[in-house]
Amino acid sequence: MQQQQMKTVYFIRHGVARHNVPDPNTGQMPNLHDERYTDPSLIQEGEMQACELGAKLRQMGLVSDVMSGSSEAMDTGCNTKQPIDLVVCSPLTRCIQTASHIFPNFSSICCHGGVREAFGMHYPDRRSPLSQITAKFPHLTYHHPSLSSEDDIDWQPHIRETRDDVVRRIDNFLAWLTQQPQQSIGIVSHGVWIECALLKYCPQVLEFGKKRVYNCEVYKAHLAYDENKLVLNNVEQIA
């Protein structure tokens, strides 16, 4: 298979959500096995993080000030960076909110089950019913078999995905991404998912597991499919 044109991808972790911070009354971190933390929203700090990141990426020429899809949106002028022309996000609320704050002028954001967090056991990683998501976020399109059902059929209370399971999803998603026509892509996902991707393809960027990916951090990389092999290289943290 001939090498396809290189794509630039931006891995973005969601902003701080309700399950990421200690309980204000007890000072204890939330119990992730508590159903009350199902698919939590961003807290105010997380919304501010996402808005500030959007402003920073706009200054860098990666986020357009005009509606996505118009010819004006793709005119970079003297800017050497190509604005992000496809946004893919996890179907969990915190990622949808983060993507919506960073890319407010996108008329459509692609919601893809392949970039969701490791699922099972932890209630924050259980998605809301599809009807609730579509009512809250009408600007989404859906691209994954698991997003054709009202309820989260993947999440189970007594078993959780392994890292190998997550890596398989990552490989399938990146292979799908190489087939898309867009060349500059923002991926709004989760800490474990992004860490699994980087540790497989470029472990040195995370100091071989010593470094974590924190809320609203951004990693830029180049992606290609070369001789039936995914290639992810030139990785750097830009925010």
UniProtKB/TrEMBL annotation:
Signal peptide: none annotated. Its EC number is 5.4.2.-. Gene3D superfamilies: Phosphoglycerate mutase-like. InterPro entries: His_Pase_superF_clade-1, His_PPase_superfam, PGM_Phosphatase. This is Phosphoglycerate mutase family protein. The keyword Transmembrane helix does not apply. Keywords: Isomerase. GO terms for molecular function: isomerase activity; phosphatase activity. SMART domains: PGAM (SM00855). The lineage of its organism: Eukaryota, Sar, Stramenopiles, Ochrophyta, Bacillariophyta. It is an enzyme of class 5 (isomerase). One of its GO terms (cellular component) is cytoplasm.
